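A further point concerns the way the authors explain their paired sequence and structure data. The central task, working out the structure tokens from the amino acid sequence alone, is never made concrete. I therefore recommend that a typical entry be quoted early in the introduction. An entry of this sort, consisting of the sequence and the corresponding backbone structure tokens, reads as follows:
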Amino acid sequence: MLFIQKQVDYWQAQLLRQLADFAIGTADDEFAAAEIVAAMKWTSKWAEDQLLVARETVTKLPRTVDALQAGEIDSYKAKILFNYTHRLTADQAAEVEERALVKAPGQTSTQLRRSLQRIVMAVDPEGCAERREARKAERIAGIEERVDDMVKLFAWLPADRGIAAAHRVDKLARAAKFPGDTRTLSQRRADVVADMLLATPDHTPSVKVNLNVTVSSTTLMGLDDHPGELQGYGPISAELARELAGDSTWRRLLTDPQSGMLLDVGTSTYRPPEHLRRFLWARDQTCRQPGCMMPAQRCELDHTVPCPDGPTAACNLCPFCKHHHRLKHKSNWAVTQPIPGHFIFKAPSGKVYVREPEPVLAGFPADPPF
């Protein structure tokens, strides 16, 4: 097993070097990551992150790459070294690297992080306050998709506020236990977080949240258990889809019974512009640039053939996030939509990438049930 790990480490180092060469060679290109995304089938965010990590690690931490290539450390430890040094100057990063690599091969990841924290504070004490403020400005909250109808809700906070919030959740969770309550402490913590965010103290909803759920009529009637779709998450179980549908405002969605592709959206209650936006959100689901998973609702609608030469219609529109909208108009990428929802991209290199339409409902049988 150790031999296999060393082989993996070697090739991880080669990948870092190759990505770094590409990043350095295209440093002035705002859209450099786009073809990496299309070729590797990576998301845009992942590709941009990997190019940044590779460039910074190879240029500022060459001994770390050498250690990875030799199998002395693994890629996880190399990433930790990057995380603790990429805001330092090249000279400071080199000093931290030299001191950290003495013990890094024999340390666990936790031990390495704690060691690096002390080394960085010693090497650049004056920069700690500036970096702390910069990190504070990066605070975020969001979700990560998980399997089995679950998500991970997270927040990136300053340590003092995060620890205080965690203590409060823990205290409320411990107080929430009642006789006969079979929930674990972790389960009660999760329930407390959801209750605090979604309800006022008297447990009445404080903020109206609209969830867009798509489910087939046969599943809704209990005739089958095909998965539904929760917009912003993806496939959900038939059981959860039926549960959510019981408390939803419905809007007609017409899908092809064999493919699950969206064909039409009811128009009786919406003005044309609103109807068109909703149709495209539902049909395309995300930014159409290969590898980009930005939800369509957060994107801008783009004319495949510029208006007025191309119509403002579903056959000539698609969502692009702001970055990839700029890429389409400011770079040598070209896109066509030969049939509605089917996009063909030609990269500056001449390579062609296809983005097929995605079923609104997945998991349909080959033949319709009726």
